[in-house]
Each structure stands twice: as structure tokens, then as C-alpha cells.
Design a protein that fits this description.
This protein has three domains: 12-78 and 176-225, no CATH class; 85-167 and 243-361, no CATH class; 375-514 and 522-529, no CATH class. It is built from 19 helices and nine strands. It is globular, with a radius of gyration of 29 Å. The protein is α/β, with parallel strands linked by helices. The chain has helices at 12-49, 53-72, 93-105, 143-148, 151-166, 169-196, 200-243, 245-275, 282-291, 293-309, 321-329, 350-361, 378-393, 395-398, 406-409, 413-418, 430-451, 474-482, 488-498; strands spanning 85-87, 113-117, 122-127, 136-142, 278-279, 371-372, 455-459, 462-467, 470-472. The longest helix has 44 residues, at 200-243. The strands form three sheets. It has a four-stranded mixed beta sheet. Strands 7-8-9 form a three-stranded antiparallel beta sheet. Strands 5-6 form a two-stranded parallel ribbon.
Length: 536
């Protein structure tokens, strides 16, 4: 379906807010220049009326401070770094057809560069050039975003982003960003001067300069972010005209919930699989994760809390969800044909795009080094072999203890952790060692149960051992043992119920050790060894 070009009523407030942003940029530079002039001129006046060493030091220090501030204002050409995986029209024609449709409805050109990023987010920007001149338009689309939304809801997101182009927000963005960078450099340069000398009168002057710079910076942020929030309301309004009010409402709620769940999903579900040299389709996995009952319930509560209690922070760039929802609900409903298929269907080959993105954000990962695996096979193909390899490697740490000894063994996690070698190139803190020891015992307990007829369910958001209709969260069970909630007598009875009495915590050596892969930059695997209490 081709969207018709929308008729947009002009708003005088849009121009006024843009003017306010421009005035704040100019005023911020004027304040710094005036402050630099004062640092030189006032000591100079004192020096002409009286000559002593302290006034001379103040004058020389003022010249240095002024030079530091003025140097901070000199524009820097910033090197553009791609935010994600660059994709092409030929590779994903359906996605680019949607982009052209949305762009045409607002009479805006399609950005020259479109990227896939690993965030529950989308953004547009003008990047490169100097002070906005010679810049180019880019659009970044979150891969997890595509798994959350329908095509109609995704149109609402795209329409919101293109509305920023339409309103000229991205043209002002480079000026605001460079002004903010200049102010930060001023702080840093003055801070460097304060570290050079400890002369009292000079320190007092630099402290006063720092205080004025701080007030100027905070006022700048409050005003600029106030303008930014107003622009978000305007972009929501235009998005409703293009893609329908209902699509925008639903996309906002889903994005808010998805943003809450994405990092726990990535850390606990995707990273452990990647570490072991495999890749499961994480878009599909994220959808499964959000559909898991306990996760869906927590996400729903989080959204309800935000709608009930969300408040505006003067330093936020976006209004709270409750205010955006309230503003959209006041708008007239626009009728649009709805497309309910998943937005990820707009990608020609989602799984290949995910693999290419992983490789693009982690240059150290060998090309083709990851093996594909379905989520249904993660337990048998990835998790159980990894447990077996880890427990076999650390069998001397476990000794010949049986599962019944766990209620006593967990009391000495520090000693167990001290016997586990540090990861290569790392020196772990005592608490980290204890967590590794607990994870080792959890894996050993899980293997003991598997050897006695239990099976593993390792789906996103659902990780447990089962036997018939019985289900056991082995990580939660270990937490209860560690916290002392289960005594020895109770634990002996529990072992009988589970059918693992007498089972050894040690394991036969794995036929082939499982090798780990370097992780994507910016992500930690530490959370992967924790329990599946993901959102708490």
C-alpha cells in the first residue's frame, strides 16, 4: 500500500522552539567568550592599579584560563563511526520500499545510509561534515525493534523519525551536539589547569570559572532538552497523521517494554550461546522471551507503572511515556489500512542480517566462526555440552562429593571459588569467585539430574529441568541452598524426590572441550552465570 502525502497544518510553536534552540547555542558561546575576556581583563585592571606577585599570578592564570576556554570553542571535525551494519536497497527491497513510502508521505528524501543496530530503538541524524555543513542523513533501525512490532506499528516508528527530518530537527542537531562538546571540553581544560598549580588565589579563580561554566552548562541542558521534548511531541503528532494513531500508541508501549527486557535477554540468553561458538536467531528468541509468562507479566507491570507514575525530568530528552500517550490520545483518529505481519518480514533474510550485524560489531570474531543453532536445540547442542566440559575440567575442585553434600558445600563458596583458575587476562574479586563457584555447583547439580532421567528445556525466558509434569529451576534451587532456606534433612528428602540420591557431583570428561569465542564489544557475559530472575 502506498501512503498518500499528508497535509500538515503549520505550527508557529515549531519555529519558536527552533529559534529558542538557536539562541541557546549562541548564548552559550557568548557566555564562554565573555568569561574568557573577564579572566584576562579583570586581573589586568588590578595589575594597572597595583603591582604585586599575587596579582601577576592571577593575570597570567587568567590568560591561561581564557586560552583554554577559547581553544575549547574551536570546532573539531568529528570522525564518523558507523552505528551498526550498513544495509542496501538491493539486499532488503521490502524494507526500503517502506522507507520510500513513509518518506514520500512527508515529501522527504530517503536517507543515504541505513543501518541495523542492536537496540530497541530507531533514530535519524545528520552525521559528518563541519558544523552541519557537508553532513549526510542516516537512519538507524534496531534489529530487536523489528521483532517487536507489526509492519503498521513499524510505520509509526519510521514516520516519527522522518518527522524529525521534516521539522528540521536533525539540521539543528549537529550545532547542539558541538556546543555541548565545546562546553565539556571547557570543563576538562579548566580542570587540567586546576591540577597544574596549587596557588591559592589562582585556585580560587579557577574554581569560580568552573562554577560559572557549570551553571551555564546546566541551564543549556535544561533549555535544549525542553525543546527536544517539545519536538518529540510534534514528531508523534506527524507520525499519527502518516501511520495512524493506534499504530503509534502500540509501538510506543511495545518499545518501552522491549527496552526493559532487551539487556536481560541479551545477557542471559544470547551471550552464553555466542560464547560457545553458536548463534541462535535472536530476533525470534526475543519474541519468545517476551512471550514467556513470567517475562510478559513483569514487562506489563513495568509499562503500567510508567503510565501511572512517569514524571518529566528537566534533563530528559524525551517526555515520559504517560505524557506521550496522553497527548496522542487527544489527537483525531486517522484511518489507515493495517498490516499485522511482523516487521522483521521486511528483511530479506533476518538470520543472515543478524549474523552480519554480530560480525560487524565484533571485528575480532572470525568470519564464519559461528555455527547456527535453533532455540529448540540450544539445550542439547550448546548448554549440556558446555556444562559437561566445565564440570569435567574442574572435577578436582568438586572431588567425590555427592549431591546430598550440597547443603554443606555451599557454605564454603569462597574456598571453592579460590580453587577455580581466573579467566585469562582477568583477576576476579572475591564476590565474583563465589558466583563462579555457585555456578559450577549448579551445573554439576543439573548434570546429576540429567543423568537420572531429567531433561532440559532451554528456551528464551523458560529455562528448567523437567521430568514428566515436574519442573525444577536448578538455578533457583541453588539460590535457596545458598541462602540457607533448605536444611540438610530437608535437602536429603528433596534429593529422594528428585531421584538423585547418591549421584556424584563430578562428571566424566567431555570428549571434546568446548571452546569459547570472543564476545561482541560492549556486552558482558557476567550476567549469564546468574539465575534466570531476569527482570527483578
Amino acid at each position: 500500500m502506498t501512503l498518500a502525502r499528508v497535509t500538515i497544518a503549520p505550527r508557529r510553536s515549531v519555529a519558536l522552539f527552533a529559534l529558542l534552540a538557536i539562541l541557546m547555542v549562541i548564548a552559550s558561546y557568548v557566555v564562554i567568550v565573555a568569561l574568557a575576556a573577564a579572566c584576562v581583563y579583570l586581573p589586568y585592571l588590578a595589575l594597572t592599579s597595583t603591582t604585586n606577585l599575587q596579582v601577576l599570578i592571577l593575570f597570567l592564570g587568567g590568560i591561561a584560563a581564557a586560552g583554554a576556554m577559547l581553544w575549547s570553542l574551536v570546532p573539531r571535525r568529528e570522525k564518523f563511526e558507523a552505528p551498526g551494519l550498513l544495509i542496501s536497497r538491493s539486499g532488503h527491497p521490502a524494507l526500503f520500499a517502506e522507507l520510500e513510502d513513509i518518506a514520500g508521505s512527508l515529501d522527504e528524501p530517503v536517507p543515504g545510509e541505513v543501518y541495523l543496530i542492536g537496540q530497541v530503538n530507531a533514530f535519524v541524524s545528520d552525521r559528518g561534515g563541519l558544523l552541519g555543513f557537508g553532513s549526510r542523513r542516516i537512519l538507524a533501525i534496531g534489529l530487536p525493534l523489528l521483532s517487536l512490532l507489526t509492519v503498521s506499528e513499524f510505520r509509526g516508528v519510521l514516520a516519527h523519525e522522518f518527522a524529525h527530518y521534516y521539522s528540521g530537527d536533525t539540521r539543528m542537531g549537529p550545532w547542539v551536539h558541538r556546543t555541548q562538546s565545546a562546553m565539556i571540553r571547557s570543563f576538562q581544560n579548566i580542570g587540567s589547569l586546576r591540577d597544574v598549580g596549587r596557588i591559592g588565589i589562582l585556585q580560587a579563580m579557577l574554581q569560580l570559572v568552573t562554577l560559572i561554566l557549570k551553571w551555564n552548562f546546566l541551564f543549556f541542558l535544561r533549555v535544549i532538552n525542553f525543546v527536544s521534548r517539545k519536538k518529540e511531541f510534534r514528531a508523534d503528532e506527524l507520525a499519527c497523521l502518516v501511520a495512524s494513531r493506534e499504530s503509534v500508541l502500540q509501538s510506543l508501549k511495545k518499545i518501552h517494554g522491549g527496552a526493559m527486557a532487551w539487556q536481560p535477554f541479551w545477557s542471559t540468553e544470547v551471550v552464553p550461546v555466542l560464547q560457545l561458538g553458536y548463534i541462535a536467531p535472536f530476533g525470534d528468541g526475543f519474541a519468545r522471551f517476551l512471550a514467556a509468562p513470567q517475562i510478559a507479566e513483569q514487562v506489563a507491570r513495568g509499562i503500567e507503572k510508567e503510565l501511572a507514575e512517569g514524571k518529566t525530568n528537566p534533563y530528559d530528552t524525551h517526555p515520559p511515556l504517560r505524557d506521550r500517550i496522553a497527548a496522542i490520545q487527544k489527537m483525531a483518529a486517522e484511518s489507515q489500512d493495517r498490516r499485522e505481519e511482523p516487521a522483521v518480514s521486511l528483511l530479506s533474510d533476518p538470520e543472515s542480517a543478524e549474523l552480519q550485524w554480530i560480525e560487524s560489531v565484533n571485528p575480532n570474531l572470525p568470519k564464519g566462526g559461528l555455527k547456527r543453532v535453533n532455540w529448540a536445540d540450544v539445550g542439547s547442542t550448546v548448554t549440556i555440552p558446555a556444562w559437561t566440559s566445565a564440570v569435567a575440567e574442574l572435577a578436582p575442585v568438586l572431588g567425590e562429593n555427592t549431591v546430598e553434600s550440597l547443603s554443606q558445600t555451599v557454605k564454603d563458596l569462597a574456598a571453592i571459588g579460590s580453587r577455580i583458575p581466573n579467566p585469562k587476562g582477568m583477576l576476579l574479586a572475591p564476590e565474583q569467585r563465589k558466583q563462579r563457584a555457585k555456578h559450577l555447583l549448579t551445573m554439576a547439580l543439573g548434570l546429576a539430574m540429567l543423568e537420572r532421567g531429567w531433561q532440559l528445556e532451554a528456551q528464551p525466558g523458560n529455562f528448567f529441568l523437567y521430568r514428566g509434569s515436574e519442573k525444577v529451576d536448578v538455578f533457583q534451587l541453588m539460590e535457596e541452598l545458598t541462602d540457607g532456606k533448605i536444611g540438610q534433612e530437608t535437602w536429603n528428602g528433596r534429593c529422594q524426590e528428585l531421584g538423585i540420591t547418591g549421584a556424584c557431583l563430578c562428571s566424566r570428561p567431555a570428549e571434546k572441550p568446548v571452546e569459547t569465542q570472543p564476545m561482541p564489544d560492549g556486552y558482558s557475559s557476567e550476567k549469564a552465570s546468574e539465575t534466570r530472575k531476569l527482570m527483578g
